[in-house]
Write a structure and sequence with these properties.
Chain A: Mammalian complex I is composed of 45 different subunits. Chain A: This is NADH dehydrogenase [ubiquinone] 1 beta subcomplex subunit 9. Chain A: InterPro entries: Complex1_LYR_dom, Complex1_LYR_NDUFB9_LYRM3, NDUFB9. The complex is a heterodimer of chains A (109) and B (135). By secondary structure, chain A is mainly alpha-helical. Chain A has a domain of 54 residues. Chain A is built from three helices and no strands. The longest helix of chain A is centred in the N-terminal third of the chain and has 21 residues. Chain A is elongated and about 80 Å long. Chain B is mostly helical and 135 residues long. Chain B is built from six helices and no strands. Chain B is globular. The termini of chain B are far apart. The chains are: A mainly alpha (109), B mainly alpha (135). Chains A and B meet through helix 1 and helix 2 of A and helix 4 and helix 5 of B.
Chain lengths: 109, 135
């Protein structure tokens, strides 16, 4: 990766992307909203702490750590809306509901 | 040839094909008839999306929360959100509408109206012929 330029628009975009990804990862793991908000506040604090970094090398290091953390905490079964790519209903035709199903099996032997 | 074809087409339209289908299919497997909204596009209206978006945004502590949030409200200027706050809001909206803001569009979104348009464009309507429990 090229050395990042501090306070540039590209940098803002990349950091936003990282932030969104971390929030999504947190949401994958945490089911309860109040716990998730706590975690989100913690994530925000961590990003805020690195707000004023003006040294490109340090910035690069922070980015690498963040990517590593994101990879480390990646959820094995993340929440994906069913009909989005990767979701369970994606690209599939779910059979419609029937008014009456087939008759139950009866053992006559 | 063409004439024949048109006659055949006329006959086909006259056929009560619903009845024909019912004869072919065993009665035990007649699917429930639902109106499909898929062809008509998303059943969400712009007002719905805006109202839900506003209710999600109100759950964040905004600087100028007294102001009315409309389509032209800018996240950073009017609501006093910084870039982290507004990305947080976007992730919350993703959950609300089951859409996914991809990186490119999320970086370009600046107003509430743009968010609403994105949601309307990318919203997947529910499949109507499924059980509500399955959906």
């Amino acid at each position: 990766m090229k050395a990042p330029v501090p306070f540039s628009p590209q940098n803002l975009k990349y950091v936003s992307s990282l932030y969104r990804r971390s929030l999504r990862t947190a949401h994958d793991w945490i089911n309860r909203t109040d716990f998730y908000r706590e975690k989100a506040a913690e994530i925000k604090l961590r990003f805020e702490q690195n707000r004023d970094i003006s040294d490109p090398k340090e910035l690069q290091k922070v980015f690498e750590t963040t990517e590593e953390l994101l990879e480390k905490f990646q959820h094995p079964d993340p929440i994906i809306p069913p009909r989005r790519p990767g979701g369970i209903e994606y690209d599939r035709n779910v059979p419609p509901r029937y008014e009456k199903g087939p008759a139950n099996f009866k053992n006559t032997v | 040839m063409l004439k024949q074809f048109s006659i055949a087409a006329k006959n086909a339209t006259r056929l009560p094909y619903m009845m024909a289908a019912r004869v072919v299919r065993p009665s035990a497997f007649t699917p429930m008839r639902f109106t499909r909204f898929v062809s008509t596009g998303s059943p969400l209206t712009k007002e719905d999306v805006l109202a839900r978006t506003v209710s999600v945004l109100k759950s964040f502590d905004l600087k100028n929360s007294g102001d009315k949030i409309g389509l032209n409200t800018q996240f950073t200027k009017d609501l006093g959100m910084d870039s982290l706050d507004y990305n947080d809001a976007l992730v919350a909206l993703e959950e609300e509408f089951d859409v996914v803001f991809d990186d490119k569009s999320a970086n370009e979104i600046k107003t509430v109206g743009e968010t609403v348009n994105y949601v309307l464009k990318n919203y997947l309507p529910e499949q109507q012929d499924l059980d509500r429990e399955v959906r």
